[in-house]
Amino acid sequence: MTAAPLDSRPLPTHPHAPASHRVPHGHNRLRAAVRTFAPAVAAFAAARVAGLVVLTLWNGGGFNDLLALLAGYDGAWYLGIAADGYGGPGIGERDLAFFPLYPMLIAGLEPLLPLGARNTALLIGWVAALVAAAGLFALGSHLHDRRVGFALAVLWGCLPHSVVLTMAYTEALFTALAVWALLALLRRNWLTAGVLCLVAGLSRPTATALIGVVGLAGLIAVFRRQDGWRPWAAVVMAPLGWIGYIGWVAVQTGRIDGWFHLQRAGWGSYFDGGRYTLRVAHDLLGKASALNLVVVTLLLFAAATLVVLGLLDRQPWQLVVFGLVMVVMTVGSAGYYHSKGRFLLPAATLLLPLAVVLGRAGRAKAGTVLVALALASAWYGGHLMLIWTYSP
């Protein structure tokens, strides 16, 4: 399906313009935004709350036990960086593999909130997930209609690894920045896209997918002599966050490939063109395996299929390229096969073909599918957190 024409002109504000075309002001603008985004964001939140309820009942502990569980694994590393900075006691340089935006937010907000560091970290992640869901709704509505936007936001909350969106992890934060940056790009709001991309570059190493899309779109606009100096500004700003952190790690480690060296030597993670992923996937298909590894294998196949469907649907190239690069980086990286489903969470735009189908299916059918997916995601999230013995 061809995307709707992009038109960044403001809506008319003449006093005699039809009421549906007037731009609301002040508190009216806020109320209009709440009415617009609330259904999709609330449905997304309901899916994730269902997951937390199942996790709590399965775990058999109280609310504090649930919060401790959600702040474990990589969350412990981010909390350690927020408290002690990089290279804390007994850590060495391994924590330099974790990008700084999330721990900086924890350290900056924790003194302002009466929650403690752990709960502040979780709150940041939860708010980021809601902002990302709102962005997905806006993106789907921009390209198609509100029903597609609704389905896109809720589908993201119903993925097998969506429990991570309620943990002290960075997937929700990066997704929020990436989705709103892509939407700004489609609307040709170059400065917004550039700033969001710059910040996203401080959140996760896979921000390179977003940087490439923003940079390429800006260069195309420059070549076509569109929008004056603003595309140039986006091209310049987009990589600054990512380059800044990689450069800082190079200085700290005394080697220009410092971050990449730490990823390989400290965490066994590096880009090998997909050999590791294909080898593990091939082995899994030939023997009985842990459920999570089978699910991850199916998700990798599904992600590649969704890239092709995006091309067939003639989605904006910015979304297709972003999703494709995210898939290539996930498949092409060695190590942590069990986490590749989580690594794909920020590639939420891949779900657009499925959202279009649900958006056209009617409320009863779409609701039935989404409720079933939410319950399946809730159960699988409990399996990941309590049965699976490694990080999600």
Automatic annotation (TrEMBL):
Entry keyword annotation includes Lyase: no
GO cellular component, one term: membrane
Pathway: Glycolipid biosynthesis; glycosylphosphatidylinositol-anchor biosynthesis
Any Gene Ontology biological process: GPI anchor biosynthetic process
Residues passing through the membrane, by range: 37-58, 121-141, 190-220, 232-251, 290-312, 319-337, 343-362, 369-390
Keywords: Endoplasmic reticulum, Glycosyltransferase, GPI-anchor biosynthesis, Membrane, Transferase, Transmembrane, Transmembrane helix
Primary site of residence: endoplasmic reticulum
Membrane topology: Multi-pass membrane protein
Record's subcellular location: Endoplasmic reticulum membrane
Transmembrane recorded as keyword: yes
GO MF entries: alpha-1,6-mannosyltransferase activity; GPI mannosyltransferase activity
Source taxon at top rank: Bacteria
Region entry Disordered, spans: 1-24
Protein name according to UniProt: Mannosyltransferase (PIG-V)
